[in-house]
Amino acid sequence: MHSDPVRIALVQMSCRENPAENLEKAVSRIREAAAGGARIVCLQELFTTLYFCQTEEYEPFGYAEPIPGPSTAVLQELARELEVVIVASMFELRAKGLHHNTAAVIDADGSYLGKYRKMHIPDDPGFYEKFYFIPGDLGYKVFRTRYANIGVLICWDQWYPEAARLTALHGADILFYPTAIGWAVSETSSEVRASQRQAWKTVQLGHAVANGVFVAAANRAGTEGELEFWGNSFVSDPFGQVISEAAHGDEEILYADCDLSRISFYRSHWPFMRDRRVDSFGDLTRRWIDE
Questions:
Q1: DSSP letters spanning 122-170
Q2: pTM
Q3: Which of 15, 53, 92, 118 is catalytic?
Q4: Is residue 129 among the annotated active site residues?
Q5: What is the residue range of 108's domain?
Q6: Residue 233: other Cβ atoms inside 10 A
Q7: What is the CATH classification number for the domain harbouring 103?
């Protein structure tokens, strides 16, 4: 049972075309986060590459690698040295012609705890992920790290309360969301931009409240092609209060101190878990409830 406050860090950074440079940059940021007292460090979605899903091309398949593999080996050595937990989202090569959008979780002793494969795969203008990734088949998972029991979901998963709920039911104290979300460069309306970003934040704050967990979203920064990633990584407490938030668009390491004892406090005072009518939820497995 983890009870002491744990300091987490979200790495919000821009990426370049060379994966080796991005990995080196991430290693530097993790070192900086550890020096700042972070015990768990979460990198953004697909941190070793540019966000290549803006178009459907065959070349980016060359970026995929096994998990565990070369990049996780580097991160395992780093985690062992710094005694930090690392959450790292990468392009996974599962087999020839089979790829996933996957987050690896590495414990503070450098051990590889496992991976989560992104379940919800978008296919929208600028986010053509179905061309590259097949949906995850590992289900929703919790990773029991040295410092906290953590759940990992990835970007588009953010919009689905079922994903947050099931991960929380596995015992997660903190839900981490490696993310790559932004506006189309052609979208110039400040009102539309603000409403899109607010919707993204609001739905995740709802996950924190409904499940009584900390929520931590690590977004990327910078402009790539036709997308401007808005940054604004944030951490919410179990009652939906933002306790830490990064700047818009800039590179930053965001820290937050998560007092895990607050989970029991909120769940006892607002007993949503107790009052769930689990016997009435069977229709959630249907696509639509036809009359």
A1: -EETTEEGGGT-PPP-S-S-EEE-SS-EEEE--GGGGG-HHHHHHHHHT
A2: 0.97
A3: 118
A4: no
A5: 6-274
A6: 27
A7: 3.60.110.10
